[in-house]
Amino acid sequence: METGKNGLKRSMGVMTGISVVIGTVVGSGIFFKQGQVLETAGGTTAGLAAWIVGGLITLAGGLTLSEVGSRIPETGGIYIYMKKLYGEFVGFLTGWTQVAIYAPAIIASVSAYFAELFADFFNISTHWVPTIGILTLLLITAMNSLDNRIAGAFQVTTTTIKLIPIFALVIFGIFFGKADALGQTVHHMTATTSGNFGLAILATLFAYDGWATLANLGGELKNPRRNLPRAIIGGLLIVILVYVGVTYGIYRAVPANQIVSLDNEVPYTVARQAFGELGGKLLAIGILVSMAGTLNGKMLAFPRMVYAMANEGVLPSYLKKTNRAQAPITALWTTAVLAAILIVMSGADWLSDMAVFVIWLFYAATFFGVFILRLRDKKAAVKPNELLFQVPLYPIMPIVAIGGALFVLINTLIASFSMVLISFIFVAIGIPVYYYYKRKRH
Length: 442
Fold this sequence. Notes:
The chain is about 75% helix and about 0% strand. It has helices spanning about 15-25, 30, 35-40, 45-70, 80-85, 90-120, 130-145, 150-175, 195-210, 225-255, 255-260, 265-310, 330-345, 350-380, 395-415, 415-440. The two termini are about 35 Å apart. It is found in: Membrane.
């Protein structure tokens, strides 16, 4: 079995990579964001366009990051990319933000959502939701502590299963829906919305988030220069088709105003129309499988970044320990413990929203990195490796990706200045941590 220089096993193929992308992106957002996007857009035509534009911006980002990842095929994702591009200090703040805020908050949110749906499906008291969430997280973490082929196989399986209810929604809506998918207008919008197409795109970009976590597994992919771009691009194309297909199917099955009023109940309404009460239950099971796959994908990817930082000597050395299966065992369980704490605390959803804003800040800098890397190669007269992926339509595609990132940042700044301020405070806390470990190393 091939082992990378980082000590982790290169055993994941392109299909596992695609499954990680799909699994970490397609969770609850596609099912529960329909009403919000439609209401914000103001109509079905604009709503569907928002999902398409959001997908294209995300794809531009994926293509751009694929070239960066192809040039820097190492474990650690954008932490390593930012370090190679902008130096150790910026790289550390990137990793710190993900380790301390982004990863634990998002893992906690997915676990909590899973627990809520699980409790509702089995008529369990909501009092047990935190316990269910933590137990689910511990089970997924335990599985990831074994050979990474086991977690990879689970990812492929759950990704396949989660597509079943999605295709059912699409097929029923398209062939049996009676509403007009395009041209409907939402007549009863809240006071905070006014048919703002830009904010509707922003909502879809949050739903598309998570695709870049595959970059954390660069050191465990077979032939990462070739397979990382293939997995990111292939996975994102499938995600875009899924999101647009589900949206079109729902618009065909349920009138626009009813979608807004039903909010989170939209998928169940469509399933009941198609298959009765049994359909609603089957869809709930499909969503539970979807969330389990999403949680597994994040636990598969995020701890690798913690491991990479510890390996660099900028986090406690115990975090770089691996077990017999060559899994980053201490990084895995430390991430799980931080997420478990957030499950118990209130405001985990708010923390995840804050984390998404911060990660897009680093996305923008990473996208710009493709210009830096090409300039470096040009100055050094380095010819592109035959296995090196190069983003198509350069420089247009990276510019679109950077523009999409700036769009997220500016709109979030306008919509929630206090959250942005707190985000930067959390990032700033990493500064003394960085200098502590820098002094310790020297």
